[in-house]
Amino acid sequence: MSESRILVVKIGGSTLGSHDTTLKDLVALRGSGWRSLVVHGGGAAISEWLKVHDTPTRFVRGLRVTDAASLRVVVAVLAGLINKELVAALNALGGRAIGLSGVDGALIRVSPLDPELGYVGKIERVEGDMLRRLLDEGYLPVVAPLGLLWDEGPRDQIMNINADTVAGEAALALSARWLVFLTDVPGIAGRDGHSLARLSAEEAAALVEEGVVSGGMIPKVEACLRAVTTGTRTAIIDGRQTHALLAALERGELAGTIIGPEEAND
User: Fold this and answer.
1) Is 264 a member of any domain?
2) Catalytic residue at 43?
3) Which of 94, 157, 249, 260 is the most exposed place for a label (fewest CB within 10 A)?
């Protein structure tokens, strides 16, 4: 099967609570020849469980500070609760899903991002061959955004990672045809506040530089900019729309913003 049919989808945030059609779409796309990989977030659930465990939450420049106590909750929620709920739901729909985190098989190797952030990793390598073998075997990998600290070899330390960045680096490693972010907004807003249907890489970078793109949208756009360097077609779409993923991939009815080339790699 052609590698050009590889799709990387990031789901998370508010879309995790209303993702029923997304999961159905992923299974339907598998039936039409797409090989999909899912990266999920879970920031809201992590905050909820940190509160349950009376563990304070602090953010620096929009990134969660992850100390030893909060890391235990982060790992349990991401690699446990959320990952396995998604895997169970996809398998119930016939998706042959397999759940893993970036720690498994040293899938994602990281270095410390910033001492101020604690156990938060900067991605140094994603093992694309490992993911490709799973896709070749017909599996639908569901990846939790955790990594393994790597310093001239593996260290016995799990690290938290931004899920948007994981999706972008996975798409890059796989030379995916599509990288799609499902969000709770109708795409990227331009200088006038209206949503934009398409942006070149240069235009998207300029909006980030000017501060028009801000907050949680920044890592999504930056991930898209990384992925388009290998010809991947990227999009940030409104995951609240029923069957938004299927409409975008199969019918070209994209409710959001495309970043990058007119056509994906072949």
Assistant:
1) no
2) yes
3) 94
Is 13 an annotated catalytic residue? yes
* Residue 217 and residue 261 in contact, taking contact as beta carbons nearer than 8 Å: no
Cβ partners under 8 Å of residue 143, min gap 6: 37, 38, 39, 40, 100, 101, 102, 107, 166, 170
Query: Which among 95, 187, 220, 256 is annotated as catalytic?
Result: 220
From the first residue on, what is the mean pLDDT of each consecutive set of 10 residues in the chain (266 residues)?
A: 76 58 92 94 90 87 86 95 93 95 97 94 96 96 97 92 95 94 88 87 89 86 91 90 87 85 54
Provide the CATH number for the domain around residue 174.
3.40.1160.10
Has residue 243 been placed in a domain? yes
Domain total of the chain: 1
Which residues span the domain enclosing 239?
Answer: 3-259
104 is catalytic: no
Strand residue runs (E) in the chain: 6-11, 35-40, 59-60, 63-64, 97-101, 108-112, 121-126, 140-144, 146-150, 154-160, 178-183, 198-199, 233-238, 256-259
Query: Is residue 22 in some structural domain?
Result: yes
Residue 10 is among the residues annotated as catalytic for this protein: yes
In a domain, 266, yes or no: no
The answer to whether 25 is a known catalytic residue is: no
